[in-house]
Amino acid sequence: MASEEELFANIDALLEEEPQLPPPAERARLREAAGITQARLATALKSTVQTVKNYENGRSEPKSPRLEAYQRLLNGWAAKYPAHGAPAPAAAPQPAPVPDTFTGPAASEPADTPSPVQAPAAPATPERPARPAGRPATSSRRPAAKKAAAPATDPRFPHGPLAVLDGDGSAYGVDGIVLDCPATTVPELVEWTLKESGLGAAKLNRYGKDSDPLIVLTAAAAVKLGLPERLEGHEQRRSLRLPEDHPVVKQVVKAKWQLTQRGFGPWARIYRKAQGRDRQCVQLAILSWDALDERSWPGVTEMEPADIARVLGVYATRVITPRGSTAVSGLELMTALRPPTKAVQDPETGNWVSGYNAGSLGTEPMDPAPPEATPEHPVVVNSGWTGGFLNEEAYQWVRSVETLSDEECTLPFAVGLDLNTAFLAAAARLVVGLSAPDHFNAPKFNPKIPGSWLADLSHIELDPRLPSPFTPDGSRPTGPAWYQTHTLAYAQELGHDVHPIEAYLRRETGAYLDPWHDRLKTAYVDTLADMGVTRDLSDTEFLAAMEQHKQKDPALAAVLSAIKATVKGGVGKLRERPQGKHYKEGETWPALSRPTWRPDIRAAVISKARVNMHRKLNNMAKMTGLYPLAVLSDCVVYPSPGESPLDFLPYAASGKPQPGAFRLGPTPGLAKLEGVQSMLWAVDLMEKGLNPARHIKGGDAVLDEGE
User: Fold this and answer.
1) Minimal CA–CA distance to 643: which of 685, 696, 698, 691?
2) Residues paired with residue 636 on neighbouring β-strands, in sequence order
3) CA 657 to centroid of chain Cα atoms
4) CA-to-CA distance for 13 and 11, rounded, in angstroms?
5) Distance between CA atoms of 231 and 239, rounded to whole angstroms?
6) Residue 630 is inside which H or E element, if any?
7) Which long-range contacts (CB under 8 A, 24 or more apart) does 132-135 make?
8) What is the distance in angstroms between the CA of the first residue and the CA of the last residue of the chain?
9) Residue 664 DSSP code
């Protein structure tokens, strides 16, 4: 006879099973019977029309918490609109209306992507100390701005994902909360954070891990805990670490805590091995050690602690709790949204074990194909590879002055257009390789297979007033070279035959970056909206709003900058190069041990972004007869009769922007005004071989790989 424990285990297993939905055809019937459009249902579910279509044609199924909401709606409709011939239930209760919003992620996600779920609150135990009550923050110089409705608070983390600790023991959290922290040493701070603070954040994917709490230390707090106010040395600031014999490091070790291989630097992680499902890890960020780079977090280190907490809190809520530079956070976000493993049941033993999570990059690093690697990579050095390398980089092109017409030279202005998060837009629905590369000789080109292709495009004749879409510097190819799939596909799109000589292709593919793109896009658009730049603005209103948005709320402007840096840094991190003057070619470096060291994925993003840029340049020339003066990364400079993009962008007779060319707007891939100069100034730079776009943008960094 079964024991009570076995019976309860079986019942619990049934309770944990996901709700069962009616067949796809019945879902569509019920929606149509209720007179609801797919677009309206998508809005209610905080999803997309395509996702609803997938639900109704059986291509995908919703995940929690959207699953429960969708089931509730279908059950209500089923009671009101029974199938033909089926008896209607007697006195069926009127179902509650579907609310406009559900507790769940703010970003729209593909249906095959697991949605964030909140774990149940940990049961209260007598051994667990009571968490300190929060008090309102009063030290901020600026009153907190109005915020959009926040998601439901996870009961395990009532005080949010992070806190900024000042020298008086006040720990400033999100939403104006201030906690009293009695810690006087780093080990005491770690214990307080894990046991009393109520800090942390729920996992972003049902198969992922909760985010560890972040404690940001002001200079005064660092000194109080026995740390030096500044780290000094000949190395770059980000490379500096406390020596192993420093008293604080000894305190950490004596208390049986551990440091990661990064040591005790600006972003120190202190941990113990997890006990069961409970992680024991705290992330520290030390402001006076330059933890927050001014390029990514402009002005944040000069803010009051409460304002710093607000900036980091918005970023943590919309993107991820920072674990290092924005580049590191961009890479961590990829893994958090596509965890490498999930629990699977062993068919032989019935036990739950860790297994591969489909669509992820897995747990083991993967060697690139030789042309995808860097010259110092062991794959290249050990094999003696001399066959060339992919050169898929962003545009850095200046038009030849000789190609300027007299009419162009008489135009008074040079206007810079910058594409909003162009590389993020390129990551949308981007199919990349998930398996190791296989080599092929003389393959037939297939634009749907991600990989690297050796082909000769030097015969293709293009307008010299436009940059070549095949090279970063815009010059015409001179012979066979390696190209990513999107580059060759664009050559086909332009009407040219493509005959690869050889290729390295991947058999298993997937849209790995989709959830990453969706979350960052939502964060970017929502933050701009909070600053008054919304999608419903006319082009004139949009330009006016963009002129003032940074001054309107410097804190949110810093969040916006950090989101953009997360995109570029995250993509750059996919091909992080070795660092340090002692490195020798052929040796491995730490980044190679990550499954996310994937130069082929970086090349795919950049290739698609560059192709997207050229497609717009080409369409602009056809619609307006205008040709660019220069292109740098995601910024293009045009000659213009006026100081506004409205003076040269193509518009239909109705006043609507023409599709295919550059358009203004706040979403990724659309353009905004970046700067205006005189045409004479631009021509002078071009004659000197300088890029006007670089000066308009102030030398914007392009996909930094060394973060």
Assistant:
1) 696
2) 417, 631
3) 28
4) 5
5) 10
6) strand 630-632
7) 132/179, 132/180, 132/196, 132/197, 132/198, 134/159, 134/173, 134/177, 134/178, 134/179, 135/177, 135/178, 135/179
8) 61
9) B
Query: Which residue matches tokens 């805990």?
Result: 225
Give residues with Cβ within 8 angstroms of 457, minimum separation 6: 470, 477, 481, 483, 488, 491, 496, 498
Cα–Cα dist 601/510, whole Å: 11
- Per-position b or e across 76-112, b if 16+ CB within 10 A of its CB: bbbeebeeeeeeeeeeeeeeeebeeebebbbbbbbbb
Cα 116 to Cα 152: distance, rounded to the nearest angstrom: 12
Where is 433: in which H helix or E strand? strand 432-433
pLDDT at residue 282, as a whole number: 97
Give the gyration radius of the chain's Cα atoms: 27
- Residue 73's nearest CA partner among 113, 91, 46 is 46
- Tell me, what DSSP letter sits at residue 245? T
Sole residue written with tokens 């518009």: 651
Euclidean distance between CA atoms 104 and 44, whole angstroms: 12
Residue with tokens 């979403």: 667
Q: How far apart are CA 458 and CA 451, in angstroms?
A: 20
What would the two tokens of residue 614 be? 């050229």
Q: Which of 162, 194, 197 lies closest to 181 in space, CA to CA? A: 197
Is residue 172 within 8 Å of 139, Cβ to Cβ?
Answer: yes
- Provide the token pair at 671: 């353009």
Q: Of all helices (H) and strands (E), which one includes residue 70?
A: helix 66-80
Spatial distance between the Cα atoms of 497 and 493, rounded to a whole number of angstroms: 9
Judged by DSSP in three states, 53 sits in helix
pTM across the whole model: 0.79
pLDDT at 106: 37
The rounded Cα 340 to chain-centroid distance in angstroms is: 17
Count CB atoms within 10 A of the CB of residue 478. 10
The model's pLDDT over 313-350, given as tens digits with 9 standing for 90+, comes to 999 999 999 999 999 999 999 999 999 999 998 888 88
The two beta strands, 214-217 and 162-165, are parallel
